[in-house]
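Final report, section 2: Outcomes. Of the targets proposed, DNA-binding transcriptional activator OsmE is the one most frequently requested by collaborating groups, and we therefore present its record in full.
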Amino acid sequence: MRLLIACASTLFLVLVGCNTLVGVATLMAFSANPIYIKAYEAGATKDDLLAIQQPHRVTPIHGAASTCFDYTLRSKGKKRTLYVAFTVTEKVSAYGFSTCASAFSERYLSASELLP
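The predicted structure is given below as tokens.
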């Protein structure tokens, strides 16, 4: 019984560790991207991001009162998606290495967060 618990615990730690390593690798590869830097900046707006690059997908939210942008970032031969969500006042409210659709379905992003 102890062996089973030890094996299960070890497997859990390995899986959690793998996700952590993937997250660190993603940040190291893409954190210098101008879109990521701007999304991270306090007070960034939709126009700030559009001045850098057009998103490859725009998702309207709240009947088009606010929006979420999907970008494809590239660095050193790697690609990664990044979503940037905006409030109804067009300020960045959330961002992450996923798509808008995935962020909503995985509950990393909720429509109520996009209100001013």
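The chain has two domains: 1-30, 32-114.
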